[in-house]
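Narrative progress, year one. The postdoctoral researcher (J.K.) led the effort to move from monomer predictions toward full complexes, under supervision of the PI. The following entry was the first complex the group processed end to end, covering 483 residues in total.
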Amino acid sequence: MNKHKVFIGLTLVQTILLMTLFLQGVARIKTFSEGQQPALEVTVATLQLTDLALWTEARYTRHPSQADHFTPFQDLPSALEHFPAGSILAPVKGKGVQP
Amino acid sequence: MRHLKILEFALSSLLRRRYKNLSLLAVYTFTIAILASILLLTHALKTEASRLLDGGPELVVQRLSAGRHDLISTEAIAQIRKIPGVTEVKPRYWGYYYDALVEANYTLQGIESVHQELTMVDGRLPAGNNECAIGQGVANVRKVGSGDDLILVDSTNTGTVLTVVGVFRSESELLTNDLVVLEREDLIRFFTFPPDRATDLAVKVANPAEINTVAAKIKRIIPDSRPITRNEILQTYAGVFNWRSGMMLTVFSAALIAFCILAWDKATGISAEEKREIGILKALGWETSDILELKFWEGLVISLTALLLGILTAYVHVFYWDATVLAPVLKGWSVLFPDFRLTPFIDFYQLLTIGFLTVVPYIASTIIPAWNAAITDPESAMRG
């Protein structure tokens, strides 16, 4: 068999596989939006949650939206950030409405 | 037909150096898979956060003392209620607990005892004294389930026996993994909160357009307060994984630099064997444009295959294998860390960007040195 036919065939197979995964992803999003999401929204509203439970190693990584953006450095004068998750998070912009 | 014949020749040429090209394809695919995994993971997390946290409090009012978050007086509730547009002010009671037994941090949350049933809880929420509902992570590390006892040490250093009446389902891990939900009075007693203090206040505003105005008024009435709007909470998660985050700056840029080195090496060097091949083709009557097309096909075969394989690998890795390679990078020192069962929210613009950032420079770096060799005299090219 010609090599170019094999190459074009393999590329088509990969593209079809990728499209199948994307289409399956669309179906998963639909299932999530109609099934889990409303239940999770009720959980958030009932428990009044403000953050994802991603990083539990420090206060400011557990609740980045509720912490000061300078929290990593306020434990003691000239304290350095030492939690790994603190290096993964982008610096959170200063929050709190100014009068 | 002519193009297909040149493609056929390009494939034969690649197969002649099959071990070199296969290792190149493997490195290229790996680099794209890492780049795409990071983009898919961060985008899915950002989208999921914005969808779920949209149901959270419209405004959270904290008290600051000496530059730190402090407990807020519940007397502020009456002051905030007087602000036009505010429909409800509820105190939130929550805090952190370090479990020395398993070296994990939990978030303890107090709720009012009368509550609707949550479908995300196997069992029920606490309705009376010494009851609790726990997240999947807590249940796993403490090896407890519904009906078991969970013993925590309170602020007076006394062991408190809590009966687990519900466990949050694993689908809600991203939100509830480290939670221990208690009845409000239990939590106040556990942390020995002063009677007129709460952790912060959740404010409901009738008109979403007025949230910022209400927040500014709260800040004016209670100067040592810090109102955080829901929009700011959502913005936090939109910004947590942006290009300035460590994930992007370290892993993503390391992979991108590795790719640049690969492309640069290709662009600056063409082997003597390849030069001789170009010389022979020229001597046989190939035009410079034919040689450029040959090199274009060689570059496209490698880069398109690597791009498709890389994106396929990244997709399966993030959305089917729960990002097993990247999860330890994200986890840090967290003892409780949720399993990623992410919904495949994809930004196709990001995938196109990856394609553009990797395929185009690679093809260019294949063609440019070949063009240099192709415009030289065939005899000198054959002699190297």
